[in-house]
Amino acid sequence: MAISTFKCNDSQIQIDYSAQLSIVYLRMKISTMTKALCIISVLLCIISCNSTEQVNAPEASTPSDPHSYARPSEAKATHLSLDLVADFDNKILSGSATYDISVTGGNKIYFDIKDLDITSTQVDGKDVAFSLGDYDKIKGQSLSVPVSNATQQVVINYKTTDKALALQWLNPQQTADKKHPFLFTQGQAILTRTWVPCQDSPGIRITYDADIQCPKELMAVMSASNPTEKSADGSYHFEMKQPIPPYLIALAIGDLAYGDIGKQTGVYAEPSMLEKSLYEFEDMQMMLEAAEELYGPYLWDRYDVIVLPPSFPFGGMENPRLTFATPTIIAGDKSLTSLIAHELAHSWSGNLVTNATWNDFWLNEGFTVYFERRIMEKLYGKDYADMLDLLGFQDLEHTIHDLGETHADTHLHLDLASRDPDDGMTDIAYEKGANFLTMLELQVGREKFDAFLTEYFNIHKFKTLTTDGFKKYITKHLLEPNNLDVNMEEWIHSGGLPSNTPPKQSTRFTSVDQVVATFSATAIPTTTITKDWSTHEWLHFIRHIDTETTPDALAGLDKAYALSDSQNAEIAAAWFQKSIELNYYQHITPQIEQFLVKVGRRKFLTPLYRALKEQNDLATAKAIYQKARNNYHAVSTQTIDALLGV
Ligand code: BES
Ligand code: ZN
Questions:
Q1: Of 208, 247, 370, 430, which is the active-site residue?
Q2: What are the residue ranges spanned by the domains of the chain?
Q3: Which ligand 1 atom is at minimum distance from the Cα of 339?
Q4: 262 CA distance to ligand 2 centroid (A)?
Q5: Nearest ligand to the C-alpha of residue 339?
Q6: CB of 313 within 8 A of CB of 365?
Q7: Which of 172, 304, 363, 611 could join 580 in a cystine, given CB atoms 3.0 to 4.6 angstroms apart?
Q8: What does the CA dihedral 223, 227, 233, 234 come to, rounded to 10 degrees?
Q9: Ligand 1 pocket test, candidate residues 311, 312, 317, most atoms within 8 A of CB
Q10: How far apart are CA 324 and CA 244, in angstroms?
Q11: In 348-441, where do the E strands start and end?
């Protein structure tokens, strides 16, 4: 087959010349008139295809996504109406997904599905047969339905299965209040297809509405307009009027209560968690206003947060209008709210301007980390943001060390074809990405950089962007006008950290470094300075405990600071990791076990199980995991299963 790849309007397009020519051949038989026309059109096509910038390819600017079977340049979904019943007894969602579609070529529309039970499909009201493609263990299957250019609507009737990776059905024991069951979804990166048949590429946007029926003691909420009270009959209607990529479709159902924070902001949580959460997130409206002052209007109307049960596998997930959050950030002292700033910042970077494929993930996360730190700096000062920046940089150094600085996964732009996109979701995208932007800010000055970012969000709102598209845009709108000659290619397409990585400094950590030094020299814990420490100082301290420290000295620290009993999940996790690495953990195994059985946040689980494995204590790791596994979401069990070889 003669396939030619060429660039056109910022994207790579593949033309199958042999297919084109065979279509042409058929037409040529029809009449000589047509023959002449065809020859002219083929010639025109070949001429224009070879001269890059001239081709007008409608919608072909959606680049091909290696993780989706959808062919949006032929047929694209534009609106989804979801109608589902949540059956908690059987742990099944069942109902239909009705799509408004737009067909511009081809005779089928392709959706992504994984482990879904498709029962029937209809096109414009008529039953039609659907086809399923081969099953791939990462991508799942294509679901295709025959359509024509005139087709307007496709209905897919389906049920979820017990393999639906996005879903976690919790029994009452696994919730905070232990009275009612709970369900939540996690769509990013390619899990939405396990509960909704969809064109599951971040390069495709749809609006949606949904009708959800659940038991009447429970409330359903989505990444959409939400209720603030339970309905009498357990039925809920939702609307998401702004177009979003399918990975941001999200649902949670549980015994939820709602409380206001500010005029556009509020919190959903199980009743026993609501007051604590409202206190913790008191500054949320201020955060939103600070974000708007930085980079322009918030375009999603409301911003609420739902505090989920502790098995939620992430810290936070930026589902539009309703961030999903782990309860492990409810520290009682508002010290972990940079996570809220992060998820809020995604309302611009990620949700308004979306990475076109998962290879461009750094465009979502790098911008968001930069933006998050700017919000925190605006509200709590530079000293505060500097601590976050330094802790993030420590994570980045570890990741680069673990991967190796020449590893392709340390490039900002990734190549995740044939791999699980999850593999590319490391600190590189987050912290190296944010450092790249800080470097640019330092070069051009904050004022110009902020104006550039505001315009960047405005121009690309509700659009997707590839790394190439970003490079072209920044070259034209920031680098050239300011005569900046930066090593952008090195940042984006090389490993490790370039030499112009911004320097790091934190004044608040200077006193921590002194305590570290004193403790290393004397093994005596100081208590005078530490009493004013925030979570961040504690993390810096724990991370820097000398590797030569004896288990006895660690026991002394534990006694002085009660670290093993810390109710702050960040501090506890950092301390448990250090205790395992320095062989003190045998004294505190019950606390470690209790933590691992309760909390399902993967960021905490992976380092702890890995540290046990590296201590050659797979037996302890596996014994704990056996008790804990049932409490974890599939995102976490997939990682830990692979780590422990179970
Ligand atoms: N969008 C991510 C979470 C995510 C990434 C889910 C990739 C699935 C695949 C979210 O915004 C995030 O980055 N969460 C972080 C917290 C943040 C403060 C760095 C987390 O969950 O730890
Ligand atoms: Zn993020």
A1: 430
A2: 2-56, 72-161+196-249, 348-493, 508-644
A3: 18
A4: 23
A5: 1
A6: no
A7: 611
A8: 30
A9: 317
A10: 16
A11: 353-355
Under CATH, to which class is 348-493 assigned? mainly alpha
**How much is the pTM?**
0.91
With tokens 């206001």, the residue in question is 260
Q: Distance between CA atoms of 432 and 216, rounded to whole angstroms?
A: 47
251-254, strands of its sheet edge to edge: 167-170, 182-185, 251-254, 219-222
> 268 catalytic, yes or no?
no
- 280 part of the active site: no
CATH class of 508-644: mainly alpha
CB proximity list for 633: less than 8 A, separation 6 or greater = 168, 186, 311, 312, 313, 600
Active-site position among 280, 343, 365, 431: 343
- In sequence order, what are the beta bridge partners of 318? none
The CATH architecture to which 72-161+196-249 belongs is Sandwich (2.60)
Q: What pLDDT digit, counting tens, does each position of 160-184 carry?
A: 999 999 999 999 999 999 999 999 9
Binned average pLDDT, 10 residues per bin, the chain of 646 residues: 31 33 33 42 38 32 83 98 99 99 97 98 98 98 98 99 98 98 98 99 98 99 98 98 98 99 98 98 98 98 98 98 98 98 99 98 98 98 98 98 98 98 97 98 98 98 98 98 98 98 97 95 89 96 97 97 98 98 98 98 98 98 98 98 97
Q: Quote the CA–CA distance of 504 and 186 in Å, as a whole number.
A: 34
Q: What is the pLDDT of residue 140?
A: 98
Residue 63: the pLDDT is 60
Ligand nearest to the CA of 633: 1
Any residues with Cβ below 6 Å from ligand 1, and which?
188-189, 314-318, 339, 342-343, 346, 365, 425, 430, 603
The residue nearest atom 2 of ligand 1, judged by CA position, is 317
